[in-house]
Amino acid sequence: MSTTRLGDDADLIIRGGRIHTLDDAGTVVSAVAVSDGRIVATGDDAEALRAAEIVELDGRTAVPGINDAHLHAAWLGARWPHLFFSDTPPEHQPSGRLVTTASDRREALLHAWSLLAELGITSYTEPGIGPGEDDGETGCFGTAMLDTYVELHRAGAQTSRVTLLRLFGTIDGESTLADFERGIRTPAPATDPRWLAIPGVKIFADGIPPMATAWVCEPYPDGSTGHLLTRGDDPLTAFRTMIGLAATAGMQIAVHATGDRSIEEFLRVLESLPPAQGAPHYVVHGDLASPAQIARMREVGAGFAVQPLIAAHTQEWAGAQLGPERLASAWPLREMLASGALTTITSDAPIATPDWRLGLDASLSLLGADDAATRTALLRGMTADAATQDGASDWKGTLEPGKVADLTVLDEDPLQPGRGFTSLSVERTVVGGRTVFARA
Ligand SMILES: [Zn+2]
User: Ligand 1 centroid vs 284 CA: distance in angstroms?
Assistant: First the structure.
C-alpha cells in the first residue's frame, strides 16, 4: 500500500481496491475521498478529485472501522497481554491493584488504544466507569479513570472513538438505589461526543450461567436460581426504579443480564416506558434470552450486545449448570439476527481477546453458517449496528458521504466465504481520515 501526495480537492483519497460501504444496499465502491475527517465522495466521484494524499489499496479491501461495542479498554491496557481466556496460567494472571497513579492510568489507556489501532478497531464502548469502583481492586473502573479519559480526550490523544457508560455500583457486583440516584444527579463531564460520548449508564442485573449466578426462571441443579444484584428496599423495586430514573433522564441504559429472568424484568420495565429518544437501551450478554424475549426486545427498539467468543470458551462449563436442553438454546445469536433486533458482536476484552476476527469466527461456528449474507450481518454487528447502539448511525458505522472517515483495511475480502476471519491481516486503520496504524 503506497502513499503519495498530489493536488488539493480533498485531503485524502483511498482507492484501488474493494471498499465495502456496508450501507443498506451493500454498495461496493472503488474509492473514497475525505476532507476534514469526513467522507466527501465515493466511487467515480471520489476518483475524479485531486487530493493532498493518496492511499493505494493495491487490491486490498476496506470496510468501515471496526466498533467493539463492549470492551473494557482501561482494564485491557492495564492487564495486557493477560486475558482471562488465554494460555496465561492462573498463577500468572495479574491480580490486585493494576493502576495506582495518573501516569499508570494514562499508560493503560494509551496502551489499549495502540493495541486497538493495530487490530483495526476505531470505536468501542467502555462499559462501566464510576464512583462505585473508586476503592475497587484493580483501579481500572473508578472516577479517576473517567478523569484520565477526559484528560486524554481534551488533549486530542485518542486514536479510537469511545462511548463510555457510567457505573454507580461495583463492576460485576451490587449497586444500591441510593448510590444510583446520587450518581445520575452528578452531571457527566463535558466532552465532544464524536470522540468521547457519555450517553448513559451500565447496571448489573445478575452474574453468569457457569457460576450459576445468572438469574433464571428454571432452577439450577442445586435448586438455586441466581438473583438480582441491585439493592434497595427490595432488589426488584430498586432495579425497576433505576431503569425508570435513567430513562426519564434521557440516558441510555445497558443492563448486564444473562439469565432469562433478568432479561424478563428489564423487558417489563422497557415495555412500560416511552421509546428511548437517543441511543437505544440494550442487554449486555443475553445468554439465555428466549425467542419470545428477543422478539419483544425488537418491539421496544432495544438491542443485545453479545460475545460469541465467550460462549465458545464457556460452553462446557455452563453446560454443567444449565443441563443439555437449556445449553442447546443458550447464546441465541441466530434468533437475534433473524429477529431484526439490534445485535452487536463484542469481545468483552480483557475477558476474551479484543481480536474481533476470532469473535467473528466464533460467531460463524455458533451459527453453523458461512455465506456472504451471514458474514455481512456479522460485520454489520461490529460497524453499522454498533454505531446504532452508540446512537451515532447518522455519522459513523458505514462509508457514505457525510460520515466520518473511519476505515479498516484488510488484505482480503472478509465477506468472501470459506476463509476464516482470523486469517485476514489488518493492514491499515484510519480514524477521521488519519492513519493510526499501517502495517510496515
Ligand atoms: Zn463486560
Answer: 8
Distance 193 CA to ligand 1 centre (A): 22
Cβ distance 254 to 242 under 8 Å?
no
The domain made up of 3-61+421-438 has a fold known as: Urease, subunit C; domain 1 (2.30.40)
Spacing, Cα 348 to ligand 1 middle (Å): 5
Q: Compute the distance from residue 419 Cα to the ligand 1 centre, in Å.
A: 29
pTM score of the predicted model: 0.97
Per-domain residue ranges for the chain? 3-61+421-438, 66-354
Non-local (6+) Cβ contacts of 111 within 8 A are 77, 78, 80
Give 71 Cα–ligand 1 centroid separation in angstroms.
Answer: 7
Q: Which chain residues have CB less than 5 Å from ligand 1, an ion?
A: 348
Q: How many angstroms does the Cα of residue 72 sit away from the middle of ligand 1?
A: 6
Compute the distance from residue 126 Cα to the ligand 1 centre, in Å: 9
Q: Could you tell me the distance, in angstroms and rounded to a whole number, from the CA of residue 285 to the centre of ligand 1?
A: 9
CB 143 within 8 A of CB 134: yes
Instruction: Give me ligand 1 centre to Cα 283, in Å.
Output: 11
Distance, first Cα to last Cα, the chain: 10
Tell how far the Cα of 172 is from the centroid of ligand 1, in angstroms.
8
Same fold, 3-61+421-438 and 66-354: no
How remote is the CA of residue 51 from the centroid of ligand 1, in Å?
42
Identify the CATH homologous superfamily for domain 66-354: Metal-dependent hydrolases (3.20.20.140)
CA of 105 to the centre of ligand 1 (A): 19
Residue by residue, pLDDT tens for the chain (440 residues) are 655 555 578 999 999 999 999 999 999 999 999 999 999 999 999 999 999 999 999 999 999 999 999 999 999 999 999 999 988 888 889 999 999 999 999 999 999 999 999 999 999 999 999 999 999 999 999 999 999 999 999 999 999 999 999 999 999 999 999 999 999 999 999 999 999 999 999 999 999 999 999 999 999 999 999 999 999 999 999 999 999 999 999 999 999 999 999 999 999 999 999 988 889 999 999 999 999 999 999 999 999 999 999 999 999 999 999 999 999 999 999 999 999 999 999 999 999 999 999 999 999 999 999 999 999 999 999 999 999 999 999 999 999 999 999 999 999 999 999 999 999 999 999 999 999 999 98
